[in-house]
Design a protein that fits this description.
This protein is mainly α. The protein has a single domain, classed as Orthogonal Bundle (hpI Integrase, Chain A), CATH 1.10.443.10. The protein contains 11 helices and 2 strands. It has a two-stranded antiparallel sheet. The protein starts with 16 loop residues before the first helix and ends with a helix.
Length: about 220
């Protein structure tokens, strides 16, 4: 069921298509911020994984966008494994517009004065301000990740495949990220109707009559 994150507590909101539209058109106001948001949304990566991307993880030596984005093992939570994630055409459009300049450390999203990379906390602040700007409550950078993983799950992508993309240590951790919609719960319960015996109205009428006769005796 949809949870609301209040004062940075609770699960991050799963974004609707309409909210994503508002966020990327009016909430995130710079090319860099929109590209950062798109990286998280279209790869399902964590904010720390996004801000620590190197330019060469996304673009080749000729400056062309790679077919796959590389998330290095050392920058992932738990440092489990390096992940290669196909770059969707929607993300490719953002990356083509962004065109990063080489910084001293080669990060895709460099920090202040080109030193290091954008700090995850600062990236989170940018995202929260963007959501506030377009009146989206309960969202954080984790919303991009939860939204991406939930959409894949709802599209019947096997959890093991989603785990390969998300980088979760096990399926139990992954399942905690996935949102269950009320309509899905209703659909699941509705599926149980096939277990019910088919009883005609005449059966109920006969049973009612029998019960009445029993009482009159």
């Amino acid at each position: 069921m949809q949870g609301v994150k209040i004062d940075r507590h609770g699960k991050a909101k799963v974004l609707t298509p309409e909210e994503i539209g508002r966020l990327f058109t009016s909430g995130l106001t710079t090319v860099r911020d929109r590209t950062l948001g798109a990286v998280m949304l279209y790869t399902g990566c964590r904010v720390n994984e996004a801000v620590t991307l190197k330019i060469k993880d996304v673009y080749n030596s000729q400056g062309r966008i790679r077919a796959e984005l590389i998330i290095r093992k050392g920058n992932s939570k738990g440092k489990l494994a390096t992940r290669s994630i196909p770059i969707l055409e929607e993300l490719r459009c953002f990356l083509a517009t962004y065109k990063p300049t080489n910084s001293r450390d080669g990060f895709l999203f460099p920090g202040r004065w080109g030193r290091g990379h954008l700090h995850p906390e600062y990236a989170s602040l940018i995202f929260r301000k963007a959501c506030s700007r377009v009146d989206i409550e309960g969202a954080s950078t984790h919303s991009c990740r939860r939204t991406a993983l939930t959409l894949m799950s709802n599209a019947s992508i096997p959890l093991r495949v989603i785990q390969e993309i998300s980088g979760h240590r096990n399926l139990e951790q992954l399942q905690n990220y996935l949102e269950v919609e009320p309509s899905q719960v209703r659909g699941a319960i509705a599926a149980l109707s096939m277990l019910s015996p088919i009883v005609s109205s005449s059966n109920f009428d006969n049973e009612s009559a029998n019960n009445t006769n029993f009482v009159s005796e």
